Amino acid sequence: MPALLEMHDIRKSFGATTALDGVSLMVDAGEVMALIGENGAGKSTLMKILSGAESADAGRMTINGRPYAPHGPNDALTAGVAMIYQELNLAPDLSVEDNIMLGQEMGKFGLLKRGEQRRRVAEVLDRLGHPELEPKTLVSQLSIGAQQLAEIARALVMQARVIVFDEPTSSLTQHDVARLFEVIRSLCDDGIGIVYISHFLEEVREVAKQYTVLRDGESVGTGLLDDVSEQELVRLMVNRDVDEMFPSVPHEPGDVLLHINGLSGRHAPDDVSLELRRGEILGITGLVGAGRTELLRCLFALDDVKAGKVTIGTLSPAAAPKARIRAGLGLVSEDRKGEGLAQTRSIADNLTYSRLTPYSRGGWLRLGERRTQVEHWMERLHVKARSPEQSIVELSGGNQQKVALARVMHQDAEVLLLDEPTRGIDIGTKAEIYRLIGELAASGKAVIFVSSYFTELLSVCDRVAVMSRGRLQDVRGASEWTEETILSTAIGTDA
């Protein structure tokens, strides 16, 4: 019997760059195939070819043994191939029903058959095990986990036989992750084939049995996950042994550098007081909506500050981003695409926007001097790019994140506010970022590291703080926490 999906010897080049060099992939009905690899390994290009967004230069594909060569995304959907992207593709101002039925509306003579549509939507939601999701609710009012269910329901309405999940858990709570895995298992029970892309190897093992590893556009390993160790998977991905998943750089906390007293925003944070020392890495975690991001945005004065005082060294800057930057704060946003980086601008522009004075004279920029410095930071952070003039949108997610970090380092910030700095980043790049954070602390910088990934906080940080409903619940040394006590504190039970 042929596999549900077969991709044979797929090749794709963009000019002189070879993105895929003879990649093959097979997915059986009712199977989850984990597609693993670093950023830039070719996963996205391979899935774009599968979904009809790109065409292959060579190779062939089949679905249920029949030739498959989509001329665009609509062809792929018609053939039963659906994509669930990391950044969900929903219309926030439309209802759940309208999003699920978008492009598949039931009507006659230009009029929608609302009752029939609602019954169809209820069927697929019930099939997913979540009939409580109200079809009339606006998508903008749903949690990220519920929005993801609406996207999966849309794939089922389109009678998808192959569904690709691209980093589906990067913005989900642990509860929503568990719920998603239940849905994936039920999809497999119905004979649907799943391609699952993730940088979290522990969750890959939980949801998948088969794996394929891509590196530099080639298939470098495939087989059963039970037959391969995590260390072997990492070595396949990065082509070297990563001895330290969480590199440790010796550093010693010193004098208090940042003092927060009674900081409150419009909705969150709520009366947060905290001290941060030079050479210290403070982790902040909690469930989605706990107020972690809002705390950093109030610190940086991006959001309105209702009350409280922020002191950096001896300075108490005004509640404006420009004043906070001058006082020594630097922020790396969790939303790289939306606000962290100017996607259509160059690496050089993004890296230097927050500190142009070294290259400014008489209202003119000394571009040669700026390029020299940008090249220095690109080399230091191992940013893979053609030149400083390459636009951000052309870089992989990992290299974009390195540019965002390089910006606050070039800014010479004393306190770095890092919001989910490793989200959507491959394992090799994560290790580089962990080492970089340690080096920043060793140089006397203070770091606030916000993350939903408890393991990295416990491994990298000196102290960890847990937030819930906008308030700071507890702060302890990292060694005094476990993942279980963090979670129980975050949800408000006894730790």
Task: Please tell me about this protein's structure.
- The protein has 495 residues and is α/β, with parallel strands linked by helices.
- The protein folds into 2 domains: 234 residues, Rossmann fold (3-Layer(aba) Sandwich), CATH 3.40.50.300; 235 residues, Rossmann fold (3-Layer(aba) Sandwich).
- 34% of the residues lie in helices and 25% in strands.
- A 6-stranded mixed sheet has the order 6-9-10-3-11-12, with helices on both faces.
- Strand 11 and strand 12 form a beta hairpin.
Please outline the helices and strands.
Elements (H helix, E strand, L loop, with lengths): L4 E10 L2 E11 L4 E5 L6 H8 L7 E6 L2 E2 L5 H7 L1 E4 L11 H6 L5 E2 L2 E2 L1 H14 L16 H14 L4 E5 L7 H16 L3 E5 L3 H7 L2 E6 L2 E7 L5 H9 L17 E10 L6 E6 L3 E5 L6 H8 L5 E8 L8 H7 L1 E4 L3 H5 L6 H6 L7 E2 L2 E2 L1 H14 L16 H14 L4 E5 L7 H16 L3 E5 L3 H7 L2 E6 L2 E7 L5 H8 L5
Parallel strand pairs: 3-10, 3-11, 6-9, 9-10, 15-21, 15-22, 17-20, 20-21
Antiparallel strand pairs: 1-2, 1-4, 4-5, 7-8, 11-12, 13-14, 13-16, 18-19, 22-23
Helix pairs in contact: 4-5
Measured distance between first and last alpha carbons: 53 Å
CATH topology of the largest domain: Rossmann fold
Structural class label? alpha/beta
CATH class of the largest domain: Alpha Beta
- Got a strand count? 23
Please give the share of residues in helix: 25-40%
Approximate shape: globular
Oligomer: single chain
Number of domains: 2
What is the alpha-carbon Rg in Å? Answer: 24 Å
